[in-house]
Amino acid sequence: MSPGFDPRILRGVNLLARITVDPSVCHGKPVIRGLRYPVESMLEYLAAGDSIDDLLAEFPDLERDDVLACLQFAATAVKLKTLHVPTAA
What we know:
Blueprint: H1 7-16, E1 19-20, E2 31-32, H2 39-47, H3 52-58, H4 64-83
């Protein structure tokens, strides 16, 4: 591995593979593994104070990495959006 390489980067890429977009599923919104669990909804649960363990108990067909994938997706989306935000004049 090269100096400064962070293996968490590869883990993040692998996590993002869990997020799918299909126009015939949830109106094309990003979902977890095509299961009709919108990323947006999972993020709202987390923002409201639910823990990852709470979500796993509520939705037994989800895995911890599914919830982490939602967080990675959001982090990536914010980075992408931030790059294109015009500066105030």
